[in-house]
Description:
The radius of gyration is 20 Å and the shape is globular. The protein has helices spanning about 60-75, 80-90, 100-120, 125-130, 150-160, 175-190, 205-220, 235-245, 255-260, 260-265, 280-295, 305-310, 355-360, and strands at about 5-15, 35-40, 45-50, 135-145, 165-170, 195-200, 225, 245-250, 270, 295-300, 320, 340, 360-365, 365-370. Strands 4, 5, 6, 7, 8, 11 and 12 form a 7-stranded mixed sheet that branches. Strands 1, 2, 3, 13 and 14 form a 5-stranded antiparallel sheet that branches. Strands 9-10 form a two-stranded parallel ribbon. The mean pLDDT is about 95. The chain folds into 2 domains: about 1-120 and about 355-370, Enolase-like, N-terminal domain (Enolase-like, domain 1, 2-Layer Sandwich), CATH 3.30.390.10; about 125-340, Enolase-like C-terminal domain (TIM Barrel, Alpha-Beta Barrel). The protein is of the alpha/beta class and about 375 residues long.
Amino acid sequence: MSDTIITGFKTTLMRVPWAGEPPANGIMPPAAREFLVLEVQTRGGITGMGYLQPLSGGLETLDMCLKEVIAPIVIGRDATEIEAIWQAIWKGTYWIGRMGITVFCQSAVDIALWDIVGKKSGLPLYRLWGAARGEVAAYGSGCWRGLGRDGMIDRARRFTSDGFKAIKMQAAYIRPWREDVKNVQAMRDALGPDVEIMIDVNMGWTADVAIQAGHYFDEVDVYWMEEPVVCEDIPGYQRIAAALRTRIVGGETHYTRYEMRPFFTTPSTPILQPDPMRGGLTELRKIAATADTWGITIAPHCFHELTVHLLCSISNANYLEYMDWNDDLWVTPVIPRNGMVSPPQAPGHGLAFKPEVLRSHRVGGFETTTK
Length: 371
């Protein structure tokens, strides 16, 4: 397998203006979309691509971590040894890592390695992993609180007119919780009884407020309440779940299966939402397998163009989160059809940034190779 020996890393840092209005969520900086694109090069000429979208800064810090800490661990290894490389990065960065920057960088490498293995085998990832289904239901995400009540409803109606059977709206941060209750009630009135409504609190409430608001949400048949409290407040999750009929879900801010252990040892969250940039595709698959053991389903956080491969390869898939904010960047965007998403059929993950986007919006990066 000498042709799959890793010979180099190349990164491209990008700051890309939003295609439309910045997300009106009161959380993310509105200036631009930021990306770190990692190309892992092999002796045989196959290049795998991984990418990070940190959402809240740290682009140059991530780049330096890849260059200084991660590249020396990875370059020279065989790209097909994905599990061994994951463990080597995890253990090699344990003193300064286990969460945050190092795991983000580890995830970019992991995504790129799976891309290489898929290309080497000639299979898209979901088929490489077992192909449980050919498509998965998505929900329309991004009905931001800052759009106002009418704006959120208008965006939700655009999703349903395109065939979506589920949407997600934001609560908290911008206005008092009682106004959020009125927004949810208005959304149910506007969409009728046959559309699932998810609510994302983005860790914006205490457990007490979530329970107060949640009693009203129970009455309008909400599908889930997402991240009602900060991710460290596992007792808060459990207290809210015990008080309400509505499902309490989360997991996007938790790093790896180790941080998700409380969701398994004391189950109260029936749907987990792991983020592919907090452990990579290898870790998502492990979380999914563990969750399946406990009757928990998976609805990953964002990045639908990647996570569709996971959901189409596991038995315990829930909804796919469709966020349209990056569709303009891909050579071949992954677009839902009638509320369903099919994975790319090209070998690997099948994703490529448009060359003109990489050229026009590059703000940094590095390249390192071995002979």
